[in-house]
Amino acid sequence: DFVVHQVLPFQSVSAEPFTYASDLYIALAQPGASSCAILKWDYVERKLRDFDRIPAHSAVHCKPIVAQDQLYVVVAQLFGGSYIYRWDTAVDKFIKIQDIDSQKTRKPNDIEAFQIEGDWYFVIADSSKAGSTSLYRLNQNGFYSHQALHAWHRDTDVEYVENDGKPRLIISSSSQAPVIYQWNRGQKQFTPQGEVGEMLDVQMVKHFKVKRDQFLCLSRYIGDSKVVRWEGQRFIELQTLPSRGSMVMQPFLVEQRQYLALGSDFSFTHVYLWEEEKQKFVKFQELSVQAPRAFRYVPAADVQLLLAPSFKANTLVYRHVVVDLSL
């Protein structure tokens, strides 16, 4: 069961857990409060507490990256440009270290960070008609523009997937089916590899793995969302889920249980549980979250949390509990 563990009295649109100096933190983008809130997990009280705030006029995503013992936060804003901050241990605060090219990134929507062959990268999906989804690479002095991907398509989401040792990006957009890019080791760049089926107007792409099989969850705001099995160049459709008003569809694993949270702006959030024999998700629980924009599973020592940022109401923190029905 998922039960409410803590109510955070603010609206937010993204939640990103990270571990830094052995402590657990969460970065939340709060466009209404014009900030990126950094919360710290209190292991004694078992609660999230305020730690710091980064000013962010219209934040849509705050992405923490811990690389070479340094903590960076990429702050993507709808207006006024996007920036990168670094935690300065000498003064114990976040220092702005660089701007992100506003000609390339005009209307950011999502950020993914990952490592390939020891190098750190992040990619920003850009939802403006005139912008392009851009890849940045970390060197000694900061993050530098590495590659422009998929220009002029109003991209909504980007997902990093490693399959059979091959790094890939899947980019969803308002104007075409999600596209797949595969990493070329020789060129040290991503090259186009194909599309995901016939699915148009996909809001978000997320992946999960069961044993050796890779699956994709494709969420849509209008129409049905889908779960497909990825078989090399082919995608086998397994399940469609009604999802009117859905901005987020997030698979997550709690111990051996594979869940899927499907949010909605018009009704309850539905949590599904994966049944291996049927190769599909079955309804598990309804959660009352207003206008959810992300779901993020966070293991915090002996407590398993599910964060649910809300665009219109309080951000909710659920706890995963085992209910004894034998009594």
From TrEMBL:
Domain of life according to the entry: Eukaryota
Keyword tags: Glycoprotein, Repeat, Signal
Biological process, per Gene Ontology: regulation of exocytosis
Organism: Pedionomus torquatus (Plains-wanderer)
This protein's GO CC annotations: synaptic vesicle
Descriptive protein name: LGI3 protein
InterPro entries: EAR, EPTP, LGI_related, Quino_amine_DH_bsu
